[in-house]
Amino acid sequence: MYVLPVVVAGLLLAAGYWPTRIIADTDGIRSMVAAQVLVVFTVYLTMVPALRRMTRNDASARFQLVLRAAVVRFLVTLVSTGLILWWGVVDAKVFLIWLAISYLIMLMVETLILVCRIKQLSVLPQTLKSNRFHHAGNTPRVSGYTTAGPARDVGSIPSPLRRDDPAGFGTGSQSNQP
User: Fold this and answer.
1) 33 has a pLDDT exceeding 90
2) Which residue of 3, 25, 91, 176 is most buried, as measured by CB atoms within 10 A?
């Protein structure tokens, strides 16, 4: 997951090499590479700490963490872009075009990574909660026999899916006939 921004940047560089070379020559290539490096740097600067901090936070804190990372990413990109343009080491037009393209694409990539991580963290506790054998007092009961607590006859529990339900609960349009 951590290599995805670099892979996407490589794909963007490969896709943009010839058009940029034809339009802006080698100065354009240098500007394109500088924009990709800046965006990948800011993505890693904000994404890696956010991913690491997510494991210690609840859902609302994770959301705030993602928003804070987006604001920091934008500010770092803005300040770095200003410095690069002020120094005049790249072709400004090509740099800004590739910065906008790569920033938007990396924003989607980083969002995808963070959402996958949030889902992974929220599914894990729910998976453990849904497993009834991991909770105290919920031991498996077979034919009225249990090792913890009184026996319970599973056949006497009303089920909404059973056809012999006298009240017709859960049967929908089915009749109660066998």
Assistant:
1) yes
2) 91
